[in-house]
Amino acid sequence: MSLSHEYAETHEVFNQVPPLDGVNLYRIDLPLQEWLRRFGGDWAEARIDAYGALAGGPLMQAGFLANENRPVFKSHDRYGHRIDLVEFHPAYHELMRTAIEHGLPSLPWSDPRPGANVARAALTYLHSQAEAGSGCPLTMTFACVPALRLQPEIAERWLPKVLATSYDPRNVPMEQKSGVTIGMAMTEKQGGTDVRANTTRAYPVGIPGSGQAYELVGHKWFCSAPMCDAFLTLAYTDKGLSCFLLPRHRPDGTRNQFYVQRLKNKLGNWANASSEVEYRGALAWMVGEEGRGVPTIIEMVALTRFDCMVGSSSLMRQALTQAAHHCAHRKVGGRVLAEQPLMQNVLADLALESEAALALSMRMGRALDNLHDEQEDRFARLVTAVGKYWICKRAPEMIAEASECLGGAGYVEETILPRLYREAPVNSIWEGSGNVQCLDVLRALSKEPGVLDALFAELGDGHGDARLAAFIQRIKAGFADTDDIQYRARQLTEDVALALQAKLLLEAGNNTVSDAFIASRLAGGGRVYGTLPRGVDVEALVARATPHLI
Ligand SMILES: Cc1cc2nc3c(=O)[nH]c(=O)nc-3n(C[C@H](O)[C@H](O)[C@H](O)COP(=O)(O)OP(=O)(O)OC[C@H]3O[C@@H](n4cnc5c(N)ncnc54)[C@H](O)[C@@H]3O)c2cc1C
């Protein structure tokens, strides 16, 4: 053997972890299985299991491709005609097609049996682990249904295609399509939270009022998924801010006066296109009562907020899966990381955060399945804001910590961690940012009859745990004192979220999980992960979180 050949092999690769490629994300997720069953989604287990295989396999691969090949805006064709097209990589279409064919935007509406929202949340939780950007149009299409139903003739025309399990990405009028997707455009340059500052105007084409045609003139500063077939949007008439359905095409088949200006160059969420648009006399139909645009579109926003909870829980779970898997195999100093006490403390702490987020999201799914029950309706009203605030707020920090468990590898694009981290902040911003959710909690508790009682009925007396009982008393005192309550709204919302999570974990009966959660979370905020107190069964918590390759 010549010397040069001998040196060509510089080293042996060892102490790298086995790939997780192709793993069934449902089968490796014990907490998901338990919470799905607990809240009545078990009848859908076979399809969720099938989706778990897709999400860990082909969709995971598609997720990488759809983010490496970002959508591209084409304003004109080669002959100079305005076309306003956003072109996506085939992987994005694969993600959309698979999700729609498996009922992610439609299941609870098409098959509204008990547990349907819980089952759909599980599907969404799996999908977003593979790729979260496509979740934006999927969510909006799911969430538009209650708002569209406020205008029955529009609902009759659109809903069969909104709920079809067929993905049809062609840029043609909805009449020619087998299925459609729906977007939402509210935010303008001068105000996103403050939609009442909107300047877009709507002019009646004929007679004014609900269900009637209008021409819209104005702009939207954020309009995600601009290739959707229609958008719920807000514009002023003489009677106030009203809600409209604005399709991409006019009834005669020509393109509507809906102009994409440019795509946003975003921190993350790369597979999804977010645009700025202008309406230059765009035809749109009024949905709901004239002047009641905000309550109309809130029907949609409430569900997208729920999906932000599910989406952030999902990102956290994928980050945990990667961290726990890595540490189960990687040795430092001759010993696998998952057996070393300080890493056990970190992993167990991350696992608690992930499971508590999932528990609250699934509990919210159950409330959506039971809105006919007054208590559940009030619970959903409040916990939409509480959960959206808390879970979305926890995600970026938790994912950063999970990345660090992989060391340098967690900072490198080939692992999914950088993408999860980039994706995480957006759920806290869109659909009402953090402060807006906390102010909404105050609004719900002070202005909507029965919501405060519903909260304390849900929390009960601490379920036999003195620490939770004391914490609930603290929350009661916090709300009873109305001095500077806005100033304290984040702390109050955090406390409500933690108490609800603690209560759910206690009820579920896994003492290792609930005890560790209560001991660490109810003691005070502002924690760094990996600071669980003495006495926590970290080995059991880590084992519960670690994917077992089968
Ligand atoms: C990637 C991406 C995609 C988006 N897609 C869409 C879309 O498809 N359709 C759409 O309509 N919008 C979309 N948005 C816009 C998003 O919903 C808004 O950015 C968001 O609602 C905040 O509005 P704003 O940006 O105008 O911020 P502002 O309203 O100016 O708020 C700024 C900050 O002030 C806080 N704040 C507001 N009011 C108060 C108060 N009273 N007290 C204390 N703090 C307060 C907010 O919480 C926020 O942190 C998207 C945003 C992003 C980042």
3D architecture notes:
This protein is α+β, with helices and mostly antiparallel strands. It has helices spanning 3-8, 30-38, 45-56, 58-68, 90-101, 107-110, 116-130, 135-148, 152-162, 293-329, 341-369, 374-405, 417-423, 426-429, 434-447, 451-459, 466-480, 489-508, 511-521, 538-545, and strands at 72-76, 82-87, 182-185, 201-204, 213-224, 230-237, 240-247, 258-263, 274-287, 331-332, 335-336. Strands 3, 4, 5, 6, 7, 8 and 9 form a 7-stranded mixed β-sheet that branches. Helix 2 packs parallel to helix 11 and helix 12 packs antiparallel against helix 15. The chain binds flavin-adenine dinucleotide.
Uncertain residue ranges:
none
Percentage beta strand? 5-15%
Helix content: 40-55%
Give me the number of helical elements: 20
Q: Could you say which small molecules are bound to this protein?
A: flavin-adenine dinucleotide
SS class: alpha+beta
Radius of gyration: 24 Å
For the residues shown, what is the average pLDDT? 96
Based on CA inertia axes, which overall geometry fits? globular
- N- to C-terminal separation? 42 Å
Task: Report the sheet with the most strands, covering strand number, pairing sense and barrel closure.
Answer: 7 strands, mixed
The total strand number stands at: 11
List keywords for this structure.
550 residues, alpha+beta, seven-stranded mixed sheet, two-stranded antiparallel sheet, 11 strands, binds flavin-adenine dinucleotide
